[in-house]
Amino acid sequence: MEIISHCVWLYHRFPLSLREVQEMMAEGGVIVSYDTIHQWSRKFGQTYANGLRRRRARPGDKWHLDEVFIKIAGKTHYLWRAVDQHGTVLDILVTSRRDAKAATRFFRTLLKGLEYVPRVLVTDKLASSAWHGAG
Fold first, then answer.
1. Which end of the chain is more exposed for a tag (fewer CB within 10 A), N or C?
2. Residue among 47, 65, 57, 34 at smallest CA distance from 5
């Protein structure tokens, strides 16, 4: 049951595909098909997701949004990050492009499903940030 729980957790907690979860499990020595992971996720996923939603603390009303440069396999990428005033990481996004479209996508994903918006947004004021005038 622990393996099933771990697969369902990986799939629902992180932006991973079924095949990526399958590869991660194989890396740990557990051979399981992506179709089996899909079946487990359909059967147990909603229960798990509901539990996550209930336990998630409401973020603070002051959010800090920034981006940093990172190297992945020798290529520059951009890590977009949102943190509330308590230090809770709200969301991250790694992109290969640094533009307003990426910033907008990150922000929309961050706000998706929330019933409230932050009182204050603090940004790094970079021109690539679609919300650079907001904080």
1. N
2. 47
Residue 38's nearest CA partner among 24, 19, 52, 51 is 19
Contact 79, 92 (CB under 8 A): yes
Q: Do strands 89-95 and 62-72 pair parallel, antiparallel, or not at all (unpaired)? A: unpaired
- The β-bridge partners of 123 are 65
Beta strand residue intervals within 28-135, DSSP E: 62-72, 75-84, 89-95, 120-123
Count of C-beta atoms within a 10 Å radius of residue 94: 13
- Whole-model pTM: value is 0.49
Distance CA 2, CA 63 (A): 36
